[in-house]
């Protein structure tokens, strides 16, 4: 019974960390990756569709992303979606494909991105703490219904806190790694 709560707690906390890593992948580092445009949705005949589902998205070099639509008629819609997404660059449409030229990042921009990363990691920590609270409530409910003793409840709460601490540490390590990646010139 308690092991199921521990497993469930750990699983949910790991999902929060995975979500954080996905969020981090959208942040720009020194080298441009196609992850920057992953969240952009294009109006594909009335349906919001992921950019990589309507064309090839390639990072051609450290500062350029090239988007080649599978249908030339989609160029305008892709260009509009990129402008609306406000990713810090204007799309260059040459009639066949769209190129995004990212200028080298200034130290000020890098610091702003680090702040964004810290905000994302703080949200992940809050999610982990909310999961801890839910798990603690489940344990306290078991004790209240006399399914477990008070000593078992205290041990369970300690175990949940240990799981929480491990996951918070993992979030902080992930942030440190991303911070180094962002600040590296």
Q: How do you describe this structure in short?
A:
With 185 residues, the chain is an alpha+beta fold. The chain has four helices and six strands; from the N terminus they run αββββαββαα.
Give a description of the structure.
The chain contains four helices and six strands, in the order αββββαββαα. With about 180 residues, the protein is an alpha+beta fold. It folds into two domains: about 1-25 and about 105-185, Ribosome-recycling factor (Topoisomerase I, Chain A, domain 4), CATH 1.10.132.20; about 35-100, 2-Layer Sandwich (Gyrase A, domain 2). The mean pLDDT is about 90.
**Strand segment count:** 6
The name of the CATH topology of the largest domain is Topoisomerase I, Chain A, domain 4
Total count of domains = 2
* Class by alpha and beta content: alpha+beta
- Return the CATH class of the largest domain: Mainly Alpha
From N to C, what is the helix and strand string? HEEEEHEEHH
Structure annotation, total helices: 4
Tell me roughly what share of residues is in helical segments: 55-70%
Taking the sheet with the most strands, its summary is:
4 strands, antiparallel
Shape: elongated
What would CATH call the homologous superfamily of the largest domain?
Ribosome-recycling factor
Tell me what the CATH architecture of the largest domain is: Orthogonal Bundle
Distance between the termini: 51 Å
Counting copies of identical and different chains, the oligomeric state is single chain
